[in-house]
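hi! just following up on the protien thing from before. the input was this:
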Amino acid sequence: MVGQSDMMCASAALHHYPWDDIPSVVDVGSGIGTFFTHLAKVFPHTRITNQDLPEAVIQGHAWEKNAPEILLDRHVDFGPINFLEDVPVVGKDICYARIYFRLHSSPVI
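and the predicted 3d structure came back as:
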């Protein structure tokens, strides 16, 4: 099964952006945070903040399973955000937000 990040060519952002010089990033709309799991492993100096709705952030179990060392080193934080009312964490070098649209009248696949 192909994950959403793969379908949206997210690996291009991870592999072709110069992350070497980026000390911090906030992923707005991160879901459970799987997009930046690989980045956290390859660039452990980068501090990552994952922000999404509270019910998504609380499910950050992917990190416990796929990158427990990153959680232990405290290189990643999770924070709730309501996109319509709040602003992303300030003070980060990059604010990353994937935007995609789904028509509500279209069937869910």
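The longest strand covers residues 47-52.
The CA atoms of residues 99 and 105 lie 19 Å apart.
cheers
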